[in-house]
From TrEMBL:
<feature type="domain" description="GIY-YIG">
    <location>
        <begin position="197"/>
        <end position="275"/>
    </location>
</feature>
<dbReference type="Pfam" id="PF01541">
    <property type="entry name" value="GIY-YIG"/>
</dbReference>
<dbReference type="InterPro" id="IPR036397">
    <property type="entry name" value="RNaseH_sf"/>
</dbReference>
<protein>
    <submittedName>
        <fullName>DNA polymerase III subunit epsilon</fullName>
    </submittedName>
</protein>
<dbReference type="InterPro" id="IPR006054">
    <property type="entry name" value="DnaQ"/>
</dbReference>
<dbReference type="InterPro" id="IPR047296">
    <property type="entry name" value="GIY-YIG_UvrC_Cho"/>
</dbReference>
<dbReference type="InterPro" id="IPR013520">
    <property type="entry name" value="Ribonucl_H"/>
</dbReference>
<dbReference type="Pfam" id="PF00929">
    <property type="entry name" value="RNase_T"/>
</dbReference>
<dbReference type="InterPro" id="IPR000305">
    <property type="entry name" value="GIY-YIG_endonuc"/>
</dbReference>
<dbReference type="InterPro" id="IPR035901">
    <property type="entry name" value="GIY-YIG_endonuc_sf"/>
</dbReference>
<dbReference type="InterPro" id="IPR012337">
    <property type="entry name" value="RNaseH-like_sf"/>
</dbReference>
Length: 456
């Protein structure tokens, strides 16, 4: 078996927006290096000052060097029938596969990561960065942060790993069924193996244990593994591969509960890689305000974030239907509720259903009493219900409780609980904050699964 030990220098951290400035490939036969290739490459873009300071590769140095597509044939032929080896292999592989694809080549080969292999074959080191690991193992590392020097040290490390692999870790990693090399370099495979195939929320954490990403899943293991498949060259995925050191998770009874927990946890922790919190806002809302004459007025308008809302709606028709019920039940003035605008007196006054607030015949204090009763009725019109579904085990069922149009909480209860008694339910459920996005999820779910909704 032949291995291609690869190291590259680049203009930045992700392949989709940066270029390669140098590449070194050492062909290793399992015992020693038998062939080599190394060249500077013109990246076709400016090399930033901090990159030049790190690698020593300047814009002048690469000005007359070949572009990647000019040497793509040589690079492809060296790699395509060998095992691709690198320290943090997914970084180097993403750059090379991306640039080869731009040149018309489709690189398909097995990969080995010497970071992951070192953690398994020679455990117990404080750091597995190439520099510190080589110092600990007394591997010579000359010309640090240059492709040739780093590749030579990685090749020597590969020889050591092959010699000390007494448990057959390397052959096992190369099996088609193994997903080992697709994982981030610092994430133990055991943490992925323990993920269940059920709904839940997962937390990616960095070296210090800080949560850097939160996601929900219908199947935790499948969803987490999907982050590490493919060859996405974008910045966010590359940050995952570099920064993920551990995964925590919480099992949920249903996917809906996972949705709710995810939205709540993102807002609580604001992880750096959750770029935007999922939002849903109703388009219209019912408001109450006092006009210059002292009359309390109800009116529909577009949803406004910074105004107190009595009730929110997805369609203006839905809002009109609710408002007309309040007008009818409490003899409110259609003109003061903005149902009519051009008439001097509302039609309700002519029909005996309005006491003349629109004409000033009814005082503001008298009219406002009925408006306050209408607002009170509106609160009783808001739905209260529970959603019962599967639990985490056969001995329980999941429960989501909505009280007067707002999420109260969710949790797990016995199959024999009296779900129509909200007081008993509340004692068993964990309270959760409610917002329009979460209520949209819940109401959409109940429309699709009405049999799971129990009126309270």
């Amino acid at each position: 078996m032949l291995y291609a030990v690869v190291d590259i220098e680049t203009t930045g951290g992700h392949a989709s927006g940066n270029g390669i400035t140098e590449i070194s490939i050492l062909v290793h036969d399992g015992v020693s290096v038998v062939d080599s290739y190394e060249t500077l490459i013109n990246p076709g873009q400016y090399i930033p000052g901090h990159i030049e300071a790190l690698t020593g590769i300047s814009n002048d140095m690469v000005e007359n060097s070949p572009m990647f597509h000019e040497v793509a044939d040589v690079i492809y032929n060296l790699l395509q029938d060998k095992v691709f080896v690198a320290h943090n292999v997914n970084f180097d592989f993403s750059f090379i596969k991306h640039n080869l694809s731009l040149a018309g080549y489709d690189l398909k080969c097995k990969k080995l990561c010497t970071v992951r292999l070192s953690r398994k074959i020679i455990p117990g080191h404080a750091s597995y960065s190439l520099g510190k690991l080589c110092a600990a193992l007394k591997i010579s590392l000359n010309n640090r942060h240059r492709a040739g020097g780093d590749a030579a040290a990685t090749a020597e490390l590969l020889t050591l790993l092959l010699t000390n692999d007494l448990e057959g870790i390397i052959p096992a990693s190369l099996k088609i069924s193994s997903k080992e090399q697709a994982l981030p370099p610092n994430l133990p495979k055991s943490q992925v193996d323990q993920l269940p195939l059920c709904p839940g929320v997962y937390y990616f954490k960095d070296q210090k244990g800080k949560v850097i990403y939160i996601g929900k899943a219908k199947s935790l293991k499948k969803r987490v593994c999907s982050h590490f498949t493919g060859n996405n060259t974008g910045k966010q995925r590359q940050n995952f591969l570099k920064d993920i050191y551990s995964i925590d998770f919480e099992i949920c009874g249903t996917e809906l509960m996972a949705f709710i927990l995810e939205a709540t946890e993102i807002k609580r922790l604001w992880p750096e890689n959750n770029r935007a919190l999922k939002r849903y806002e109703q388009k219209y809302a019912l408001y109450a305000f006092e006009d210059q004459k002292g009359y309390l007025r109800l009116g529909l308008d577009t949803f406004k974030k910074n105004m107190p809302v009595l009730y929110s709606f997805n369609t203006i028709l839905e809002g009109h239907q609710v408002l007309k019920i309040l007008i009818k039940d409490h003899f409110l003035c259609e003109k003061l509720c903005y149902i009519q605008s051009k008439r001097l007196a509302c039609t309700g006054h002519e029909e005996g259903n309005c006491s003349g607030a629109c004409l000033g015949k009814e005082s503001a204090p008298a009219y406002n009493v009925r408006v306050k009763y209408a607002i009170g009725q509106l609160k009783t019109m808001l739905p209260s219900f529970a959603i019962l579904d599967t639990g985490r085990t056969e001995d329980e069922q999941s429960c989501i409780l909505v009280e007067q149009g707002k999420l109260y909480g969710m949790g797990y209860i016995s199959q024999y609980s009296d779900v129509k008694e909200s007081g008993m339910l509340k004692s068993a459920l964990k309270p959760f904050p409610s917002n329009d996005y979460i209520m949209h999820l819940i109401l959409t779910h109940t429309e699709l699964h009405p049999q799971k909704r129990i009126a309270i």
